[in-house]
Amino acid sequence: MKRARDTATDGGAHRHQHHHCAEAALRRAVVEDEVVARLVAQRAREEEVRRRSQEYGEAWCARHAADAGCAVREWRSGEDTELTRIEVRVYDREARAMRGVALAEVLDALPPELPRATAFGQLALAPTLHVSLLIGHVLAAARRL
């Protein structure tokens, strides 16, 4: 009789351990799902910002690329003209917002060797200032003229 009771008790302990293992596995699965969901959301955000940045860059270049060479020439001579004041929208990481700056400010900040694009499809002009990849390349090309 004692033996049957011991066996029944052992079976209960085994079921109890199995229950804790299942709970731990479920908690791990939930955490993994949350991590995956955050990564998916981050990638979606990067893709959306990259798309919008490219659209803005294309529109800006369609309007202003023809003037880029003259604007760079005026910027090099130190002139403050209508062309050097053309607005360029940049992302300000400190403010976590877009803002408009003068083309001259972008040219001042544009490094001689362009850095790789960020995950958001932009060029870092400074640690906190980013511009559309397309605008950066057009201005870098105009600067070489």
Give an account of the 3D structure.
- This protein is an alpha+beta fold.
- The protein has one domain.
- It is built from 4 helices and 4 strands, in the order ααββαββα.
- A 4-stranded antiparallel beta sheet has the order 2-1-4-3.
Helix and strand string, N-terminal first? HHEEHEEH
Backbone shape: rod-shaped
Distance between the ends: 99 Å
**Radius of gyration in whole Å, from Cα?**
29 Å
Strand order of the largest sheet: 2-1-4-3
Query: Any low-confidence stretches, pLDDT <50, length ≥5?
Result: none
Q: Would you count the extended β strands for me?
A: 4
Oligomer: single chain
How many discrete structural domains? Answer: 1
Strand proportion: 5-15%
Q: How many helices in DSSP terms?
A: 4
What distinguishing features does this structure have?
single chain, 145 residues, alpha+beta, 4-stranded antiparallel sheet, rod-shaped
In short:
The chain has 145 residues and is of the alpha+beta class. The protein is built from four helices and four strands; from the N terminus they run ααββαββα.
How are the secondary structure elements laid out?
Layout: H1 2-64, H2 68-76, E1 87-92, E2 97-102, H3 103-109, E3 122-126, E4 129-132, H4 133-143
Antiparallel strand pairs: 1-2, 1-4, 3-4
Helix pairs in contact: 1-4, 2-4
